[in-house]
Amino acid sequence: MVHNRGIENVLVLQGGGSLGAFGCGVFKAFAKRNIKLDIIAGTSIGGVNAAIIAGCRNERPEIALEEFWLELAENAVNLVPPWHQPDNINNGSESYYSKYYRQASMSLRHTLTYFSSAVYGNRIMFAPRWMPEYATKDPQYFRPDMWTYIYDHSPLISTLEKYIDYDKLKPEGSPNARLIITAVNVLTAEPLTFDSASQQITAKHLLGTSGYPLYGFPWVEVEKGVYAWDGSLLSNTPLREVMDAAPIINKRVFIVENYPKKIERLPKNLPEVYHRARDIMFSDKTAHNIKMAKAITRYLQFIEELYEIVESRVDAGKIDRQKLDGIRRKYQKMLKEHGSEIRNIAYITREEQFPYLYENTDFSREGIKSLIREGESKTSEVLQKAGL
Description:
Strand content: 5-15%
Low-confidence stretches: 1-5, 87-97
Number of strands: 10
Largest sheet: 8 strands, mixed
Mean pLDDT: 86
Helix content: 40-55%
């Protein structure tokens, strides 16, 4: 394994619905290069990806993760007409395929896959409450005026059982990487961090991290009296949570950006305006956290230098040893709580050639496979530049 004991490799996965398939491709590239991840963190679908990687039942988490995404694609309702399927449009002509399908048909595919997800859900991931089978098991089935959510995402539990060994996701559980996922407390708006190094991660935590209310998903009671919603409501890039949970060892961080921060041109119409606004809401906002981590590191180094100067050059008889020892204890406490430094940070960013508002609900087979390919390709470029 490519691993340096003096630094931890950290992979941070954003949320983003079907865009989580991009993260699947990212991890495939890491696995191909045999790069060990010490910590994997995520929120929403990024947290689900992270849990499969960390707690995979077999020895090839990259294979299991891809199987999970392809299974989601196979169980999506497909409303795209046969003549708009890639195999029928391409006909061996890449130029025709690129010009026609990737521009005109991509818009149709995103729109139709959005409506299929909205109306029919995905039977192994989430289901609309208006489906007939809920008539006998949902006490509010005939009272939509009392609904606080539209989609039941508990089907995800049985799907994940095939991929995750939850016994790994607990202290001393020997996961493939330390798992950190995030959510938000519905009642207090406080962040919730679930860390496999200090607690048992369960299916409830995964439902909590992926319960995004504005897409119609419910809150989840992850502990008695603690109700969790999707962590992307606070931050879609849980780097700060990683630094708080693992503050001692220095970090090499890779951030997967499902939602690009930068674009080349202004939006041209209202759909593009809404698309850009959504991207900004979910984009990475950890620049301040990174600056603060570096500032704290410099301050701690400065304190250490001052302490060494005092001990080596000041007459011991003129020093209050008790006060100096007290300063040392405070310094050691700060070092333990904030001593890690982000040595390197790399961004793996999904491209948006065509700004479509519904791309994060595209669970079509072609859409998922395309995102996996892109994630793997982009990551290979980043890792090659980093010399890994």
